[in-house]
């Protein structure tokens, strides 16, 4: 199993550009989430999904869109990038069938918006 | 709302020293508690967990006990190694509403272990 994979690993954007961060998991997990990690702030939840076709907002959703058309994939879209979105983005997945909802994290995407 | 407070770093220790990283939480109900570790350039990995009061999670020599009376989940290790250098995150999972993918994290504590 590859676990949770994310692409790209690094990305530089100009203000106003759009892009999609890809996330895929091969563990058949129902739950998937996107977090951003900023210095001194830990990880903050952007959006999450409890299954294909179902998404909801987390703590910091503004400026980001998500969709979940399959169990495996959960892309994060930046419609018009802003410098405030410079961060490291982590995707995670978990299954409600686990005894405790442990999340499995991808390696992250480091995004810089100029 | 839910929140997690952990001691600020960076923490610098000599090899074989004793480690404590404090973590306290605020939550309604009975959350599950976690410690995650992030090695340089990598994503987060689960280090240990506890699901109810007085549970002790342990892994790789690290331990943490779920203390409901003090709302704490402090991370300890008796003898740290250089390979333990990483950032450690305390986190909670709400006990209701299918909170499995809505973790609340602390700000992280960077640990550096020197020879």
List the helices and strands and how they pair.
The complex is a heterodimer of chains A (114) and B (115).
Chain A: E1 4-7, E2 10-13, E3 19-25, E4 31-38, E5 42-51, E6 54-57, E7 64-66, E8 76-78, E9 87-94, E10 104-105, E11 109-113
Parallel strand pairs in A: 2-11
Antiparallel strand pairs in A: 1-3, 3-8, 4-5, 4-9, 5-6, 7-8, 9-10, 9-11
Chain B: E1 3-6, E2 11-14, E3 19-21, E4 23-26, E5 32-38, E6 44-50, E7 56-59, E8 62-65, E9 75-77, E10 86-93, E11 104-105, E12 109-114
Parallel strand pairs in B: 2-12
Antiparallel strand pairs in B: 1-4, 3-9, 5-6, 5-10, 7-8, 8-9, 10-11, 10-12
Task: Write up this protein.
The complex is a heterodimer of chains A (114) and B (115). Chain A has 114 residues and is mainly β. Helices cover 0% and strands 51% of the residues of chain A. Chain A has strands at 4-7, 10-13, 19-25, 31-38, 42-51, 54-57, 64-66, 76-78, 87-94, 104-105, 109-113. In chain A, β5 (42-51) and β6 form a beta hairpin. The termini of chain A are far apart. With 115 residues, chain B is mainly β. The mean pLDDT of chain B is 91. The radius of gyration of chain B is 14 Å and the shape is globular. The interface between A and B is medium-sized, with 31 and 23 residues.
Uncertain segments of chain B: none
- Structural class by sheet pairing and helices of chain B: mainly beta
Percentage beta strand of chain B: over 45%
Portion in beta strands of chain A: over 45%
Sheet with the most strands, sense and barrel status of chain B: 6 strands, mixed
Instruction: Specify the biggest β-sheet of chain A.
Output: 7 strands, mixed
Report how far the terminal alpha carbons of chain B are from each other: 42 Å
Number of helices of chain B: 0
Average pLDDT score of chain B: 91
Radius of gyration of chain A: 13 Å
- Considering DSSP H and I runs of 4 or more, what fraction of the residues of chain A is helical? under 10%
* Overall 3D shape of chain A: globular
Choose one word for the global shape of chain B: globular
**Radius of gyration of chain B using CA atoms only:** 14 Å
Spell the H/E element sequence of chain A. Answer: EEEEEEEEEEE
Distance between the termini of chain A: 36 Å
How many individual β-strands of chain B? 12
Order of helices and strands of chain B: EEEEEEEEEEEE
User: What is the helix fraction of residues of chain B, given as a range?
Assistant: under 10%
Structural class of chain A: mainly beta
* Tally of contiguous helical segments of chain A: 0
């Amino acid at each position: 199993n590859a676990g949770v994979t994310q692409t790209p690993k690094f990305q530089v954007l100009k203000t106003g550009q759009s892009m999609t961060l890809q996330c895929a998991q091969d563990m058949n997990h129902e739950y998937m989430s996107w977090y951003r990690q900023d210095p001194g702030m830990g990880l903050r939840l952007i959006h999450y999904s409890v299954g294909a076709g179902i998404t909801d907002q987390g703590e910091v959703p503004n400026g980001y869109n998500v969709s979940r058309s399959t169990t495996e994939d959960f892309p994060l879209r930046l419609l018009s990038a802003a410098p405030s979105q410079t961060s490291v983005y982590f995707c995670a997945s978990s299954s409600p069938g686990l005894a405790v909802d442990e999340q499995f994290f991808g390696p992250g995407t480091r995004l810089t918006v100029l | 709302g839910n929140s997690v407070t952990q001691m600020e770093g960076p923490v610098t220790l000599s090899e074989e020293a004793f480690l404590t990283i404090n973590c306290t939480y605020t939550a309604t109900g009975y959350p599950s508690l976690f410690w995650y570790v992030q090695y340089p350039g990598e994503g987060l990995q689960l280090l240990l967990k506890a699901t109810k009061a007085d549970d002790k999670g342990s892994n790789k020599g690290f331990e943490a006990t779920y203390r409901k009376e003090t709302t704490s989940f402090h991370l300890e290790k008796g003898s740290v190694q250089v390979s333990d250098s990483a950032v450690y995150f305390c986190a909670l999972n709400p006990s209701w509403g299918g909170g499995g993918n809505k973790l609340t994290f602390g700000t992280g504590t960077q640990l550096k272990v020197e020879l």
